[in-house]
Amino acid sequence: MLWLLTTFPQFNALTQQLDDQRMLAQPPATDELMSKSYVIEVGDDQAGVIIREDGEREYQFHAALRSYHALEGRRFANALLAERAAIAHAVSRRRRRHASAALEGASL
Rg (Cα) of the chain, in Å, rounded? Predict the structure, then answer.
């Protein structure tokens, strides 16, 4: 074979072309077949994780803390949207808590 490669340069080009075609025909790399996941954090809290299973286009949220249970099962196109939703949820909870504390203080 070495003799063929040095004697016939077109043979080398043909084998390279066949190798390229074989690479294209191979299944995707293993990391593309595996699920992907990201941890979603809000401040110091680990709010939850989002997981995208094989063949799915969206990530599903799984709450790590009880305070983020309202987001459980929601689907997001990407990690940034999930993080924004978790932050918005935390801000909303904080506002409700402060509003209820203010109402309790006013009633005393």
Answer: 27
What is the phi/psi pair of residue 72, to 5°?
A: -55, 130
Are 33 and 77 in contact, with CB atoms under 8 Å apart? Answer: no
Distance in angstroms (rounded) separating the CA atoms of residues 39 and 42: 10
**In the chain, what are the domain boundaries?**
1-28, 35-107
- Rounded to whole angstroms, the Cα distance separating 23 from 18 reads 9
Q: Which of 80, 45, 41 minimizes the C-alpha distance to 59?
A: 80
Question: Which of the 8 DSSP states describes residue 53?
Answer: -
Beta bridge partners of 63: 48
User: CA 59, CA 82: separation in Å to the nearest integer?
Assistant: 8
pLDDT digits (tens, 9 = 90+) for 20-68: 555 555 555 555 556 799 999 999 999 999 999 989 999 999 999 999 9
Q: Is the pTM of this model over 0.70?
A: no
